[in-house]
Hints:
This protein is α+β, with helices and mostly antiparallel strands. It has helices spanning 32-44, 47-58, 60-74, 83-92, 138-144, 149-163, and strands at residues 2-4, 11-13, 17-19, 27-31, 78-79, 117-121, 127-128, 133-137.
Amino acid sequence: MEKLCTKCGRTLPVKCFNKSKGHLYGVSSQCKDCWKVYTKRYYASGKARVVFRKRRVAHPHWVWSTQTVTSHRKYGLEVLIDPRELEKRAREARFCAICGGELDWTPLRGKTHNDTPSLDRIDNTSTLTLENTQIVCHLCNRTKNNRTMKESIKYCERVIEYRSK
Ligand SMILES: [Zn+2]
Ligand SMILES: [Zn+2]
């Protein structure tokens, strides 16, 4: 089977086109080569960044969820969380699960702030699930560091005990 590329006008085998539902033979109307040129230009033009900004403003919880999953994977952790599930949780997370402080989901605030939401591993294992994670503020996450939740509470208790002497 062959198809005509509407961009370069070449007639090429169907395998030279990207899959695309709803088009003739289930492939895109432009060949792979033309797509490559297009996407290269697209990213070079900086339009991708504009689109990303818009997407972030429109769907802050979704962008946070996908970025959180990606960054934890990059960090070498196993993530068994569906970003859609995480987004659902993010939408409900108005307050930090540790200190109760209000989280700020406003997108594009520049650098990380103390009340910027982040995903915390409750038991600090290297496999992340919805059950062993919670959404906390950046400051709590930094303070907790690599402690488990139990260790953190113990630590706080020790501080209170010592300081009240
Ligand atoms: Zn083409
Ligand atoms: Zn907090």
